[in-house]
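Researcher: Structure for this, please.
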Amino acid sequence: MAMLFPHVATTGRIHVRVAVSYLAEQSAPNAGRWFWSYHVRIENAGDKPVQLLSRHWIIVDGRGVAHEVKGEGVVGEMPLIPAGGSFDYVSGCPLDSASGSMRGSYRMVDEDGAGFDVEIPHFSLLSPV
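Model: Predicted structure, token format:
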């Protein structure tokens, strides 16, 4: 699993795994545009279902400028993740620099209505240029 998803953060019984890829075909370095996709797997190793309600990303570009992104759910969904289950999604990040990084958190709620934050691991956005 570590080879497929090299970036991992664990909060309680929730594991967030991330794999990132530079997308040369969607990047235009001469125009100052670089693009990455990232694949996230959220695993619920607990004995109760949890629901992802919102996301909070901190994206730092190659110049050290931080951008915050907050919103409901992920990729248009607020997934319910059963005990022992997982949820995968793929999204993307454009930058106007050849490198950067991302980190953040998800707001989740358990079946009893208790809310909690889950860490998203820090990962680098690196281009081959």
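Researcher: Any notable elements?
Model: Strands lie at 7-11, 14-22, 34-44, 50-61, 66-72, 80-81, 86-95, 99-110, 115-126. The longest strand covers residues 50-61.
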